[in-house]
Each structure stands twice: as C-alpha cells, then as structure tokens.
Amino acid sequence: MAAPALALPVAPARRPGAAWVIGPTSDLAFLIGGALVAYGFLAAHLLFGVAAVTLYMAWVLAIDGPHVFATLSRTYLDRDERAARASLLWGSLAFYALGPATVGLSILAGHRLPYDVFLTVCTIWAYWHVVRQHYGVMVLYQRKADEHDPADDRADRLFLYVGLLAPIAGFACNNARTLAMVGLDAPPPWASVGSSVAWLMVGGAALLLVARQVVRARAGLPIHWTKLLFLTAATSVSIVLFAPPVAARIDYAAIVPIVTSFHDVQYLAIVWFFHRNRRDDRQGRSMTAPAFMHRLPVFLALGLGFTLVYRVGLGCLFSAWPGCDVGAEEMALPAGLTVSDLGIGFLWGFALQHYYLDQRIWHVRRDPALGRDLRLDAASYVDNHAKRSRKAGMPAK
Known about the structure:
Layout: H1 3-6, H2 24-31, H3 35-46, H4 52-74, H5 79-84, H6 86-91, H7 95-109, H8 113-144, H9 150-172, H10 176-181, H11 191-218, H12 225-241, H13 244-247, H14 255-280, H15 296-317, H16 339-361, H17 368-373, H18 378-391
C-alpha cells in the first residue's frame, strides 16, 4: 500500500463535486477503494481456489481483529472517553455474558434452540453493523459536501439500504445455510418471487438515484461524484457477491470475510484520521489518548497483537480457531452443546460489544466535538490544512 495513502493526507480545500472525507488519496485508497479488498478476496476464492478458511484467517489477522482494537483505542484507552462514557463502557461488558447465558438457557430447556437463536441474531447484527457503518460514511460525504436537501438524503439512503439489504435478502431466500437458521429444509414457495422482487428493488433504487442527479444537473447544482462513487463501491460488493451466478459458486464460509473486509478497511482509516486530528488539535488541552495511537505502524502492530490474543489464543482454547483444537469440541455439555459452544458464545461478546459501542460513539449529527475531530466544518477543515502547511514551510492554499 502506498506511503502517501497510509499518511491519510487531508484534502486542502473543498471543490464542488469533490468533497473528500479525509483526502483524495486516502478516500480512494480506503473509504472507496477499500472495496477492492473485498473483490480481491472474492477473486482469490472463485478464480484461484483459495479456501474459505484461508480467507477467514487472513481477514481476521490483517484487518478484522485490528478494527475491533480500533474501537478500544477510541474508548477504553482514551482518558476523556472513559470519563465521559463510563456507564456506557462498563455496562456494555454485559454483552460478554449473553453467549454463555444462552448456553445455560439451552441446558435448562433441554435443547440447543436458545443458543442457535443467539448465533442467528449475532449473524444478522453483524451484517446490519456493516450496513450502518456504510450509512455513517455516506453521512460524512454529505456533510463534507454541505448537502442539506432532504430529496438528496432520501435518494441516497434508499439506494444504500436497498443496495445492501435487498441482495442478501434474495440470497437468504434460497440458500440452504440461511434457511436452516430459521428451521427450513428447503426454500419456501415464494422464494423465487421474493428474490426477483429484491433485485427489482435494487434496480428501482438505482434509477431513482440517477434521476435525482439529473434533477440536480438541470437545476445547475453540482453532482457530488465522490459521494456517488462511495455509494457505488459500498453497494456493489453486496450486489456482486449475492448475485445468483456468484452466490451459487461461493463457499458460504467465505461470505463473512468478503462482505466485511471493506467495512474493516474503512473503519481503520476513519479511526486513525480521528486520532491524528486529536493529536494535531492542541487548543490548550492535553492529549488524552496514549502516544502509540499517533504512530501508525505501532497502532497497527498493537491491533495485530490484540487479535492474536483474543482471536487466536482464546480461539485455540475453545477450539474456535482453524487448525487449533485442544479438545473443547469433545467436552460435552447437556442439550447437545459442548465447551467449544460455550467459548464461541463468549467470543461473540467482543463483536457484540463492538457493534453496540460503534452505534453509540459515532453520531456526528449530535456530537459537535466529534464533528470537529473528523474535520466536518469548513473552518477547521481549512485551518487544519493551514497549520500543516506552516509546519512544512509552505503557503496555505
């Protein structure tokens, strides 16, 4: 990955139609171009025969585990955040008890249904978490472009939500694994019609978005093509992945790494941008986060170390990491469960807490301080560039 992209440069100024969240290089490499990571995983699986388990291990170690660590760096490792959100941070630890609690409930009930329902809910929430992050990035592009027309917001939201949800709904109607999650052995009679309706909705939402751009152009308004490029990248991953010809060839276990990887890359870039802006914002306040957050190689290395401990170390302990089985799957519990199931339920706590915290700490529309740290207002956007230019001995543009 190119060094300029890793530096996450801030765009020097706003231009009509080219509103960048971080900067052109970083947006194209991460917030938009991060979709290429998903397509790389997909191509490796379909064209080169890379096994789903290999994709899974590479995805966890390289980007998914570190992106969970990024949330910890944004919350528990920040002194101000710990003080301001103490109830949220400590209360959210209850998510680690949900999995073990459903194991206990299954044992009491004499069958594993409560635990299976828990796993299904976790899977649904995982995808919804990806959808909501894409929505959040879309809002950042809207804010950077100073968009205020409700018609634009409606067209954007409709295209994003339909483009992300309708393809997976059509896929779920016909896939044996997803049907088994709800106790079905075969697609219901309406599955084919439901899938067709889902794809028609995608086409309709796309036409509506295009029509809105035509209206803007005729009114002499700029077309915010950076936002449109992001929307296309975000929805295209789900549209391609869940298209029937592709979905029929893919191993179900490869879906999670493919569909989540773009989200992970985005998140790491945004959190790093947030940390770097707080480092540069010396407006009479001391830095409240550890110094390592301001060194990208150290930040990424610690994310990898965290991943090795919680995903590989604990995964091996509970026979939940590929190729590392210490026998937990052989330790039977009542109701057809094992100690491995208990451990997997606990490990889901890391993901569930991450999902919950993220939906509480990234509200740019309600948090002025967050908007400042993400450079969403024009003044701080230009002032930040001027500060950097002075440090480099260059005139501010």
